[in-house]
Amino acid sequence: MTRIVQSRSKGPAVRLNQLRYFVSAVDHGSFRKAAAALSIQESSVSRRIRDLEDELGASLFMRHAGGVQLTVAGQEFLRNARHALRQIDIGMTKVAAVGRAEQGLIRAGIFSSLASGFLFDLLRAFSARHPHVQVDLIDNNPPEHVAAVRKLCLDVAFITGTAPWDGCEAEHLWYEKVFVVLPEGHPLGNKPELQWADLASERFIVSDVAPGQEIHDYLVAHLTGLGRQLDIQSQQVGRDNILSLVALGRGLTLTSEATTGAQFPGIIYRELADEVLPFSMVWSAHNDNPACRRLLSLARSMARLASDK
Fold first, then answer.
1. Which of 56, 71, 86, 158 gives the lowest tally of CB atoms within 10 Å of its CB?
2. pLDDT of 95 strictly over 80
């Protein structure tokens, strides 16, 4: 049994079972009754309490034929013993709750809008099942997310792509279609679906924060070779303000399907034909966060269900 109470100097050390035996003897008024309540031998109670008294250097009980009675020192020690046991019980209850994922904290990196889609549904379902688990969300680029997962600064990251990452576990979960964001009244808005050739002469704007660089690289990869000079401008604003700039006519941009669940004034969405983005979850095998394991399990179940449908 681990020692749990020790003076700041090298004084007496008290074991958990000694505290429990001592308090039980007080509550029952005798070693014999305490032993019966604890389902152990009376000699064990007597020996542990004697050891406790030796370590403390004070008698805690006056022994008599009818049982035991606290000494003055025993009365003083009782208050501390009950307090210590109460704190230990509270701590054990909290640890058990964390282990069952009833409480806890998950730090999750995201690279998709929460306006709709798989990630929104996953977080909503997890919150309903585990309302006392806090989920903190962090926006960033996939490489930064993966680096944080490796360092255990993030529990899990939901990012684009299906490529393996060194030192991490990864599992594909869902796909999202790719949409072009246009200002209302744009000529391309008359088409229900767009091709890359339709966009060759358009100006695009991207954010200088996530996921701006990935959108920039995606545009370059698909528009290069269409015979027009690329016009892609970086703006020092976030994801939502990029959409507002589109509404102001500053340029077009791309977004994933989840974003289309949010309606912004002055813009319209048009699907880009035959373009989809795979999304995966990435985590570390060294992460022992039980709440995170519950989230990973739920994500797998929902992905399988979506695939079956």
1. 86
2. no
